[in-house]
Amino acid sequence: MTNIDGTAVMGPDLATCDSEPIHRPNSIQPHGVLLALAEPEQVVVAVSFSIERHLGIAPAGVLGTKLSDLTSAATCDRLREVRANPQRTEPVAWPLEIGLAGAKSRWLGLAHQQDHLSLLELEPLTVPPPGDSALLMVSDASRRLHATTTTTEACQVAAEEVRRITGLDRVKTYRFASDWSGEVLGEARDEAMPSYLGLHFPASDIPGQARTLYRTNSIRLIVDVGYENSPLVAGPGLLPAPIDLSYSILRSVSPIHLAYLRNMQVGASMSVSVLRNGALWGMIACHHRTPLHVGFELRQACQLVAELLASQLDMLEKLARVGRRSKVEQIRARMANDMADGHAAAESVERQGKALLDLVGASGFAMVRPGATVRVGQPPDDSALAELRAWLDVDPSSAAFQTDRLGEVYRPATAYLEAASGLMAVSLSGMNQGYLFWCRPELPQTVTWAGQPSKSVEQVTGALRLQPRESFMAWTEEMHGRSAPWADQDVAAAQQMRDTVVDLMLREKDELTRQNLRLVHSMKGLETFIFIASHDIHSPLRQMEMLISMLRHCIAADKTEEAAEYLAEFGALSTRLRTLITKLSEFARAGRSDVDFAPVNLNEVVQAVVRQLHDTINEAGAEIIAADLPVVRGEREHLYQVFANLIGNSLKYRATDRSLKVSITSNGGPAAQAADLADAEGMAWIAIDDNGIGFDPKFNEQIFDPFERLHARDRDEGTGLGLSICRRIIERHGGRITARGVINGGLHLTLSLQCVPAERTGPES
Questions:
Q1: CA 390, CA 532: separation in Å to the nearest integer?
Q2: What DSSP element (H or E) covers 283?
Q3: pLDDT over 60 (residue 279)
Q4: Is beta strand 683-690 parallel, antiparallel or unpaired with respect to 661-666?
Q5: Residue of 497, 481, 479 whose CA lies nearest to 489
Q6: What is the CATH superfamily name and number for domain 134-228+249-317?
Q7: Confidence of residue 283 (pLDDT cuts 50, 70, 90)
Q8: Cβ(599)–Cβ(632) under 8 Å?
Q9: pLDDT tens digit sequence for 629-651
Q10: Residue ranges per structural domain of the chain
Q11: What is the pTM of this model?
Q12: Which of 28, 53, 364, 497 shows a CA-CA span of 20 to 30 A to 259?
């Protein structure tokens, strides 16, 4: 910061890159202006030198004056509104006029709060490029990202979409590793720009305090790499310390980084942080050969793309976890079968050893317990495993440990790196009986860096200073003592298997634990159900949010016809979401066990359903035939729901080339014999047959799974819960339901319910 008399308050310390106070640079980039205002009077206490260049006002002529002397009352009020919301950290932007009387000019104002000050940045107004609006381009990006199936594919699409939005010469999607080095997973570029796709960048390229700043402020823009700083000027005694510019878009950047970019032959730069759960996952790094100002609207669009990328990465990871969890459940089931066949827990672990190795891509596995060790594959020898257990026991608070370079953290492991350069260990803390170990061998790697990763050091005025790298040509390095890294999913799977092994050991001791195991298994199924339900709910919500943005755009542009179309789509999505929530509620109620059963006449139930669906049946020209149905023991409302769902499905999936016929019969017939229900003592069976479009018989069981849809959404706008609800209700009634489909040959359903003896039947209460 420079005082009005020209004395320095503080200069940047560039002795080392990591100690540079980049969030308090005391200067901004010269293409804009920054005003720091003391509240509540909105008095200017600091201003950038660039005000004289852009507004023709010397800094001394502004310091100590009120903002109202420079701009409209509306702008002052807007700034007070920003001040009234201290939780908001992102700048609020709006066009404004500023300057002395008779010499005002238009700018884009960006305002935010920092400590006790209000900061108002002035940025040149930009005209959006011709073509699609930023909102429509983000909509296209959303659709493309949502269709990706791998991390690499999603990163490539993000790079392409940001380049399409901004027109920048090169856009890279960059993922950080655990040591903060990075790898370029996606790239879109002008052919004249060198490619960095697949190359690695060392952690020193983005030092620790820069990563912290990228978590705080997700966008950094450098309009002209060759710029000269515009210092901030404060009146004597007005500011005790330099201003924190963490949230400033005009903030000046490190001279080392500017030199780094010039060495890359870059004229302008922009980066957008990719944050997942508040953590810095990676960056979308953009370069242009010549100076370029990316306007606010386009920057916001790029930030949305980064957020969409993070959301898609989360979704892909969740889907992968569901798949991995399915493998865990298969191993769990096989272990449970082993136990049922009389095998001990340790024997079951050994029998499933290959599956345990394949689960996380390990070459060795061991279960180390007092007095017993189970070994599979190629782990270290028993004595080495015992020493590893003792080493891990020093910190018993750590339930899980993983590393891809064991020799660096545990020196004795250098003797067996070929077997265990990588180690993942989970404690059997529930039994206080040792660990499960997974090992990976040394995997000598050839890492291709974008230039030699080390920076040069120069002696400058008695201090050692890091210098930016000058070459970015591909440079390879052989790395030893490391294994393939463990993914979060590997650790999660290992912890799940630990839970399984602990459960199995407990099952050897107590029958009660077998019940707990079934409960855990049920909860895992519930977690999967909740995940799928959440996905089905979020899908229309995301579309509704996008439609809201499009509606705002249409309203602002006075596009009434287009707005009406979006409103219609919004209404349809709202109806779909309401239906899904209703079905989820019905699904939950169908599992209640606190309902008293009573005699229910199924003839009356079916007649009530036919009356309710009268209009739909007539419109379809359908014929519903029900004869001599029994009186059963049950709950009338839920049995009504079963028949309403089943008859409704027949109406929904009717064939177009013939009239629909639905037959509901009881006691005898081929459907009952096929289901083996006719001989069940005290049970009545009911067969429901239609001549609709049917389905492939291989889905006879799958059709009852929650959210299962056997037909395309353009035909089936249902929730996929109807038949699941039916099965849940029937099973709660002590019966079961089966299905048999024939492609274009109709559906045959058979269900069983408890009979009410003839002498007890009578009018329902």
A1: 42
A2: strand 279-288
A3: yes
A4: antiparallel
A5: 497
A6: GAF domain (3.30.450.40)
A7: very high
A8: yes
A9: 999 998 888 788 889 888 988 88
A10: 32-123, 134-228+249-317, 348-444+485-505, 524-589, 598-760
A11: 0.58
A12: 53
